[in-house]
């Protein structure tokens, strides 16, 4: 019997359109002999399904069901592709935990922790993994630029602590631009991370624990054609090269995969997760973990899976199988 799959997308952050793009790819690639897919849009309190005739059906939040053709439709599993709030920060996970509906992503605690870059960096540093030196700001705190520059050295990256896709992220080269960058980041979030720039090459590693077997994907090197891998470079065709497998030293590849496997387990991740790093002649530095990585045609994870011999459709089937187990 085919399973009813709710592909949830949208959300309440600057990654809304990216999420819709990922969800469309998931919808097109799900095996229709195994699954009945429904693309569910979530935006604030507006949760709904649009059928092929563009008729809108409202989700009953009491049990996350739909009323279609005179009968109630319940879902067997949730395919979570909401990048950002509320799909990546643990809120939607807690809701589905209460309803006892399985989902494809990491759980409440792991999602909440990893989504907040400031808190996540502190935990990752405790595992022995290197992270950039940083300052975590709260509640629209705007300290004197000199106060920050006494602790951190330029260049600096300023970003929302709870955010993704480099939305409202700035690279600061001059102290006179620092407070403006912080104010921009606060326009997206109530917490901001200011961290030192690390010179090096950016790499990315996907991981999934599939039915108890840890699978580490080939590493991708990101070569941005902008000053850094910002929103434009991530989502504008031709603005960045993603080289899979990365042409990197064997010891860097080994260490990157080992760190990713270790962090996946210590952070209690589930489903497909992507870890991002910077490496140079000195060391590998952790940048961030994405528990709801992009799954669109331009995204890194499908590219890595393909080089591992796993088709996009097979990858999505693995994620659903994991969740149902």
Please give the structural blueprint.
Layout: E1 3-10, H1 16-29, E2 35-43, E3 46-50, E4 56-58, E5 66-68, E6 71-73, E7 77-80, H2 91-99, H3 108-115, H4 117-126, E8 130-131, E9 134-138, H5 145-149, E10 156-160, E11 170-172, H6 178-186, E12 191-196, E13 201-210, E14 213-216, E15 220-224, H7 231-235, E16 240-243, H8 250-266, E17 272-279, E18 284-290, H9 300-307, H10 312-324
Description:
The chain is an alpha+beta fold. The protein has three domains: 3-104, Rossmann fold (3-Layer(aba) Sandwich), CATH 3.40.50.20; 112-130 and 199-324, D-amino Acid Aminotransferase, Chain A, domain 1 (2-Layer Sandwich), CATH 3.30.470.20; 133-196, ATP-grasp fold, A domain (Dna Ligase, domain 1). The chain has helices at 16-29, 91-99, 108-115, 117-126, 145-149, 178-186, 231-235, 250-266, 300-307, 312-324, and strands spanning 3-10, 35-43, 46-50, 56-58, 66-68, 71-73, 77-80, 130-131, 134-138, 156-160, 170-172, 191-196, 201-210, 213-216, 220-224, 240-243, 272-279, 284-290. A hairpin with a 5-residue loop joins strand 3 and strand 4. The two termini are 16 Å apart.
Quick summary of this structure?
By secondary structure, this protein is α+β, with helices and mostly antiparallel strands. The chain is built from 10 helices and 18 strands.
Query: Any idea of the CATH class of the largest domain?
Result: Alpha Beta
Outline, from the CA principal axes? globular
- Continuous helix count: 10
- Proper CATH architecture of the largest domain: 2-Layer Sandwich
Order of helices and strands: EHEEEEEEHHHEEHEEHEEEEHEHEEHH
The CATH superfamily name of the largest domain is: ATP-grasp fold, B domain
Number of structural domains: 3
Q: Which topology of the largest domain does CATH recognise?
A: D-amino Acid Aminotransferase, Chain A, domain 1
What would the average pLDDT be, to the nearest integer?
91
């Amino acid at each position: 019997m085919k399973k009813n799959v709710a592909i949830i997308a949208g959300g309440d952050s600057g990654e809304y359109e990216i999420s819709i793009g990922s969800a469309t790819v998931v919808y097109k690639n799900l095996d229709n002999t195994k699954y009945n897919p429904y693309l569910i849009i979530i935006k604030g309190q507006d949760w709904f399904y649009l059928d092929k005739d563009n008729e809108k059906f409202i989700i009953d939040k009491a049990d996350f069901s739909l009323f279609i053709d005179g009968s109630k439709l319940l879902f067997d599993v949730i395919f979570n592709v909401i990048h950002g709030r509320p799909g990546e920060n643990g809120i939607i996970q807690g809701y589905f935990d209460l309803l006892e509906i399985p989902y494809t992503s990491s759980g409440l605690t792991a999602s909440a922790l990893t989504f907040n870059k400031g808190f996540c960096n502190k935990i990752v540093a405790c595992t022995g993994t290197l992270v950039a030196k940083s300052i975590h700001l709260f509640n629209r705190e705007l300290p004197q630029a000199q106060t920050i520059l006494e602790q951190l050295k330029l260049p600096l990256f300023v970003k929302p602590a709870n955010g993704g896709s480099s939305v409202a992220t700035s690279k600061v080269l001059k102290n006179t631009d620092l407070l403006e960058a912080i104010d921009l980041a606060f326009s997206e979030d109530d917490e901001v991370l200011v961290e030192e720039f690390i010179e090096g090459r950016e790499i990315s590693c996907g991981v999934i624990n599939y039915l108890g077997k840890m699978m580490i994907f080939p590493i991708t090197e990101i070569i941005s054609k902008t000053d850094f891998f910002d929103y434009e470079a991530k989502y504008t065709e031709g603005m960045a090269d993603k080289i899979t497998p990365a042409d990197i030293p064997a010891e860097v590849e080994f260490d990157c995969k080992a760190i990713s496997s270790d962090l996946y387990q210590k952070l209690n991740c589930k489903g497909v997760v992507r870890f991002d790093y910077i490496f140079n002649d000195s060391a590998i530095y952790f940048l961030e973990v994405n528990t709801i990585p992009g799954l669109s045609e331009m995204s890194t994870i499908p590219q890595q899976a393909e080089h591992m011999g796993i088709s996009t459709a097979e990858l999505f089937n693995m994620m659903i199988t994991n969740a149902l187990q």
